[in-house]
Write a structure and sequence with these properties.
single chain; mainly alpha; Arc Repressor Mutant, subunit A; two-stranded antiparallel sheet; 49% helix
Length: 83
């Protein structure tokens, strides 16, 4: 099964908002949902989305989903700034 088959959301760009911010939010959602689907298995998530593990960990840190060696909880709460 491919990661994209497990993603339970759709994304469309919103006119009037910066593409950069929207891509940042999309990346956050992909990582957040991916962690849920893989039950926090970073090796599996990295393989599914086509990143090496170190790059994945750096992105998780950037989005504050991974701090001090553990995945942040709760992962199922949507980010409020994305509404």
């Amino acid at each position: 099964m491919k990661f994209v088959d497990c993603v339970p959301f759709e994304f469309s760009f919103t006119p009037g908002r910066s593409v950069s911010q929207q891509l940042h939010e999309l990346e956050y959602e992909i990582l957040r949902v991916g962690l849920i689907v893989t039950q926090g298995n970073k090796n599996q998530l990295a393989k599914w989305i086509g990143l090496n593990r170190k790059t994945l960990v750096n992105k998780l840190k950037k989005h504050q989903l991974f701090i001090h060696g553990s995945i942040q909880k709760p992962l199922v709460v949507p980010r409020q700034s994305m509404v």
